[in-house]
Design a protein that fits this description.
The complex is a heterodimer of chains A (203) and B (659). Chain A is built from nine helices and five strands; from the N terminus they run βαβαβαβαβααααα. Chain A has 203 residues and is α/β, with parallel strands linked by helices. A five-stranded parallel sheet of chain A has the order 2-1-3-4-5, sandwiched between helices. In chain A, β1 (5-9), α1 and β2 form a beta-alpha-beta unit. The longest helix of chain A is centred in the middle third of the chain and has 34 residues, at 108-141. With 659 residues, chain B is of the alpha+beta class. Chain B folds into four domains: 11-250, Beta-Lactamase, CATH 3.30.450.20; 306-407, Beta-Lactamase (2-Layer Sandwich), CATH 3.30.450; 422-499, Orthogonal Bundle (Helix Hairpins), CATH 1.10.287; 506-652, Heat Shock Protein 90, CATH 3.30.565. Helix content of chain B is 48%, strand content 22%. Chain B contains 17 helices and 22 strands. Chain B has helices spanning 14-79, 86-95, 123-126, 137-146, 186-192, 196-201, 253-303, 322-328, 332-335, 350-361, 409-465, 470-499, 510-520, 522-527, 547-564, 599-604, 620-630, and strands at residues 102-109, 114-118, 150-151, 155-156, 162-172, 175-185, 202-207, 213-217, 223-232, 241-247, 307-312, 317-320, 370-375, 381-392, 398-407, 506-508, 531-535, 543-545, 574-582, 585-591, 634-639, 645-652. In chain B, a hairpin with a 5-residue loop joins β13 and β14. Classes of the chains: A alpha/beta (203), B alpha+beta (659). The interface between A and B is medium-sized, with 22 and 26 residues.
């Protein structure tokens, strides 16, 4: 997995350079691209961080670049930089799932903050995705009986009720329960519920 | 509007048209009857004359024969002797003289023996006598027995002549002594013995018992059939007839001439009547054609969609057509005879309407028509286009004014709407263009500014961190400076663009420019019923200025003035332009008589996009002031003491060159 960085895509060399300098002084790793085409060409699926896209560019416009990105299934957060007259365009981009937009002339600190938030969000999303993968793996370890018992635990039923319902002894239920906790790497039913909620919440 | 005369006189009934002919025919018949009666009367008198003449002739013959017989009877005793005395002979010869009708005298004894004759009898005379002997024995015997003269029948003798005899017995106391026979030549007796005047007038012929004509005294044929008379010729009798026929009298010219002239005059009358009738028919046809033409014209005028109105020289309405009535909503009766102000004049535009009216009556009506707003009876307003022309009668006299009126309310509204839309579109497109320009400029400027801002924030970040590397900072500041210059470059480009509309100065005479501007607006001024009065300084120094710009400014200010006086009455619709020189400046004053400028408006007057006019862009005065300032002059305004506003344009005579 590569280091998360901000990808600044702007056709104006001065802007690219200035933003690069600005982000560098705030310790945000940054790569600049002179056009959407160049960025898309170089793009790797495992790139993380965010993209800062100027809406008005010669050649491929920011919006086109954004659409192409999403068309590839890339979920990289995108921050748009808009000129004065481009606000409605930016709003529609937001609706399509852009992270945010910043209007020129911008407050540079705000810009950096937005970029940082976008990168954090990306990172969080990525870690959540990793966690979900792990929970899935843990769930896969459960036997069918353990799964049944776990579902009933999540419904908040007592062991005795579970035993009656599944027509097994209390001791067996307790054994299954401890097995479930062990396999799911939790210590309590509450923790289990939170874990599974995290897992199912992303779906 | 008068109704067409009822067409009874167009076709006179048949009896009326034939009456003169019938009277004339009656007249001719009566004349004919009169002529006939005159002729009949004439003939009657002729016949009466004839009869009296005939009676006279008969009497005359009778008398002649009787006298001869008496003389023969007297001679009888003297003849019945052996030797005739010379006296007797002389008497005999006297009797036989021409004119007596006697051809021969024969004397016989009591037994009928011829004793002698004068002229003496010859044998050849006796040969071929129709009755055998002369004298005839039967007559002799009859005479002897009757004892009085007896006439014998007519007989033909050799030579075709006819004779008859008279036997006159002579008695003594002892009885019959002898008979004296007179032989009459019919021709001599009847024809030669008649007086000349009688034979001039009548043809006398003698017919025997069989009706054959045996003797005739004839001058010339032909003879009248009717004017003839036949009577018995007795003596001698024996069926002998005398026929007397009047010669056709010479033609009596006077009645003929009279009749002929009557016929001629009658013919002339007939001809005249026919001519009169033809004339009448032609007149009727012409009248019919004229009526048809009039009706056609009236129908045209009535069905016309253009309103027509005629006025006399005083402006009194003398005629209106239905279209005019429809347009203004008043009936013809309500309008005809009306003097201005007319009921259909719009009270809101009464001054202007009166002005147009006066102008037309003064003969100054524009030939391209006048637009006028009128008010219908219902109170609705209508816009009309009126064309007025002098009404010239057949003698070439100017008797009034003929106006045609078109209802252009709809067109005008449509035109107005189109114009407004057009203006709005233009304004919009101007705004869009300006917006476009502004947007481009904003984007262009944003780029370096954003870069500068980012560099600057970065530097501040470095300084805050204490990680500032002087070398790095220097580099960044160089970049920063470049971006600042880039922004400056953009501003300079804009400035260059603006500089392209700098005035092109040339020496010019402001008076000439004012005159040009007034000329330019002349048509518009007239159309808007405004007046421009110019009051120029006799001599103005030349100034260096852009003529197009100055002219544009003047036009703009005059137009504004006119706009301000749109609703003014006629006498307050003048824009006055004055020029003069004051303190090294040429001053142009443009004064209107409008409502003036309120203080609220005055403050914002030169602001861009500020306008008191509904359709105004709000740029006119702004541009005017910019132009004045481009020439280092000023544009201001002051209140007009007469009401309204005076705009003052001052331009320095010594214009500094623009920087």
């Amino acid at each position: 997995m590569t280091e998360a960085r901000a990808h600044v895509i702007d056709d104006d060399e001065a802007i690219r350079d200035a933003l690069h300098w600005l982000l560098k002084t705030r310790k945000v790793p940054c790569t600049t691209w002179a056009s959407g085409e160049a960025f898309l060409e170089a793009l790797q699926p495992d790139w993380s961080g965010c993209a800062v896209l100027d809406i008005r560019m010669d050649g491929m416009s920011g919006l086109e670049c954004f659409d192409a990105l999403r068309a590839r299934g890339n979920t990289l957060p995108v921050v748009f930089i808009t000129g004065h007259g481009d606000v409605p365009m930016a709003v529609s981009a937001l609706k399509k799932g852009a992270f945010d937009f910043i209007e020129k002339p911008f407050n540079d600190s705000d810009l950096v903050t937005v970029v940082q938030r976008a990168m954090e969000s990306d990172a969080a999303r990525r870690s959540a995705a990793t966690l979900r993968q792990e929970i899935g793996a843990r769930l896969a370890l459960l036997t069918a009986r353990e799964r049944e018992v776990m579902d009933l635990i999540l419904e908040g039923k007592y062991n005795k009720v579970i035993a009656d319902q599944l027509d097994i002894s209390m001791r067996t239920v307790e054994a299954h329960r401890s097995k479930v906790f062990e396999k799911m790497e939790v210590r309590s039913a509450v923790e289990l519920a939170q874990l599974l909620k995290l897992h199912s919440g992303s779906h | 509007m008068e109704k067409p005369a009822p067409s009874t006189a167009t076709n006179p009934t048949t009896w009326q048209s034939w009456l003169p002919f019938m009277v004339l025919a009656l007249f001719v018949v009566l004349i004919g009857v009169l002529v006939w009666l005159t002729r009949a009367h004439d003939e009657e008198s002729q016949r009466a004359t004839l009869i009296s003449d005939v009676l006279w002739m008969e009497q005359n013959l009778q008398f002649h024969l009787d006298r001869n017989a008496t003389q023969l009877a007297q001679l009888g005793p003297e003849l019945v002797v052996p030797e005739i005395s010379p006296q007797t002979d002389a008497k005999l010869r006297q009797l036989l003289r021409a004119g007596s009708g006697l051809a021969r005298i024969i004397w016989l004894d009591r037994n009928g023996t011829v004793l002698g004759a004068l002229p003496p009898l010859s044998d050849d005379h006796l040969i071929g006598e129709s009755l055998g002997a002369v004298p005839a024995q039967s007559i002799f015997r009859l005479a002897r027995s009757m004892g009085r003269p007896v006439y014998g029948p007519v007989y033909e003798i050799a030579g075709g002549a006819h004779q008859f005899e008279v036997h006159v017995p002579t008695f003594t106391d002892a009885g019959l002594l002898g008979v004296t026979v007179g032989v009459y030549s019919l021709q001599d007796l009847v024809l030669r013995e008649l007086p000349w005047w009688f034979s001039e007038r009548y043809r006398v012929s003698v017919l025997d018992a069989e009706g054959r004509e045996i003797a005739a005294k004839s001058k010339v044929a032909p003879l009248s059939d009717r004017q003839s008379y036949t009577m018995a010729f007795d003596p001698p009798g024996h069926g002998l007839l005398v026929q007397i026929t009047a010669y056709r009298g010479e033609i009596r010219w006077i009645p003929v001439l009279l009749v002929a002239s009557i016929v001629l005059l009658g013919s002339i009358i007939v001809w005249t009547i026919i001519q009169l009738r033809l004339q009448l028919a032609r007149r009727l046809a012409a009248e019919q054609a004229l009526r048809g033409e009039t009706q056609f014209r009236k129908a045209m005028e009535d069905s016309l969609l253009t309103g027509l109105r005629a006025r006399d020289l005083d402006g009194r309405i003398t005629y209106v057509n239905p279209a005019f009535c429809r347009m203004v909503g008043y009936s013809a009766e309500e309008l005809i005879g009306k003097l201005p102000p007319m009921p259909y004049w719009d009270p809101d535009h009464i001054d202007r309407t009166q002005e147009v009216h006066d102008m037309i009556l003064a003969g100054e009506g524009p030939s391209e028509g006048v637009e006028l707003r009128l008010r219908r009876k219902s109170g609705e307003q209508i816009d009309t286009l009126i064309f007025e022309a002098p009404l010239i009668d057949a003698e070439g006299r100017h008797t009034g004014w003929m106006g045609s009126m078109l209802d252009i309310t709809e067109q005008k509204r449509t035109r107005e709407l189109a114009r407004q839309q057009d203006e709005r579109l233009q304004a919009t497109s101007r705004l869009i263009t300006m917006g476009e320009m502004a947007s481009t400029l904003a984007h262009e400027l944003n780029q370096p500014l954003a870069a500068i801002s980012s560099y600057n924030t970065g530097c501040l970040n470095c300084l805050a961190d204490g990680t500032a590397d002087p070398e790095e900072l220097r580099e960044i500041h160089e970049k920063l400076g470049r971006q600042a210059r880039r922004a400056g470059e953009i501003i300079r480009r804009v400035h260059d663009f603006v500089r392209r509309s700098e005035p092109k100065r040339e020496p010019l005479d402001v008076n000439a420019i004012i005159r040009d501007a007034v000329g330019l607006m002349e048509a518009d001024t007239r159309k808007r019923r405004m007046r421009i009065r110019i009051d120029l300084a006799p001599r103005l120094p030349e100034i260096a200025a852009d003529p197009v710009m100055i002219e544009q400014t003047i036009v703009n200010l005059v137009r504004n003035g006119m706009d301000a006086m749109e609703d003014n009455p006629r006498e307050r619709r003048t824009v006055q332009i004055m020029s003069g020189e004051e303190g090294g400046q040429v001053i142009v004053r443009i004064a209107d008589q409008g409502k003036g400028i309120e203080p609220d408006t005055a403050r914002r007057l030169f602001e861009p996009f500020f306008s008191t006019k509904q359709e105004g862009m709000g740029m006119g005065l702004n541009i005017c002031r910019s132009i004045a300032e481009l020439h280092h002059g000023r544009l201001g305004f002051e209140a007009n003491p007469d009401g309204g506003t005076i705009f003052v344009l001052s331009l320095p005579i010594e214009s500094r060159p623009s920087t």
